[in-house]
Amino acid sequence: MNRAERASTIPLLKPWKPEDFFDRMKEFDDAIMRRTYELFAPRFYTPVREQENLFRNEFEFAPVPIEVYETEEGLLVHAEVPGFKEKELEVRVEPHRVFIRGRREQVTEEKKGKTVYSERTYNQIARWFELPTEIVPDKVKATLDKGFLETTLHKAQPAKKVPIEVKAA
């Protein structure tokens, strides 16, 4: 398909009336989604499986709101993790990246005579983000207080610049 043919298939380049705006936007969105699936879809792609995965991922992992502050010594990361205990959280750090993950299981059981009621619920959170500067992973400290995870990261010392003298051979 040449450039002119591709341009004619993009919905917004066709003449349209203002009252058709929402229909055109839907067509444009559909065209983008089709192209995205063409480029990134797995080999055995099925729309139903993709939709199931989307909803499963949406419900399994709750977002973790974070704030990152830069201090003289390093970075300070505040993450909201309400309801999680220390043993349910995992913080992993690389020189340029932080991973925050939590998993909580809650079991409810009631017995009334011969009837038994049992329910299990899971709650997971996951978040990773890039850091603006390199940090020292060995000096990381994390504390949990009233649903707020505070992680202190120390900046890595920049490598020393050593001038090299060039000599003729």
**What distance lies between the first and last C-alpha atoms, to the nearest angstrom?**
57 Å
- Report mean pLDDT, rounded to a whole number: 77
Number of helices: 3
Q: For the largest sheet, list the strands in their spatial order.
A: 1-6-5-4
**Beta-strand percent range:** 35-45%
Sheet having the most strands: 4 strands, mixed
Report the helical percentage: 10-25%
Find the structural class using helix and strand composition: alpha+beta
Low-confidence stretches: 55-60
CATH topology heading of the largest domain? Immunoglobulin-like
Radius of gyration: 26 Å
Give your account of this protein's structure.
The chain is α+β, with helices and mostly antiparallel strands and 169 residues long. The chain has two domains: 3-59; 62-154, Immunoglobulin-like. Helices cover 24% and strands 38% of the residues. It has three helices and eight strands, in the order αααββββββββ. The chain has helices at 3-9, 21-40, 47-60, and strands spanning 61-62, 66-70, 74-80, 89-94, 97-112, 115-130, 141-145, 148-154. Strands 1-6-5-4 form a four-stranded mixed beta sheet. The protein has a four-stranded antiparallel beta sheet with strand order 2-3-8-7, with no helix packed on it. β5 (97-112) and β6 form a beta hairpin. The relative contact order is 0.14. The model is unreliable at 55-60 (pLDDT under 50).
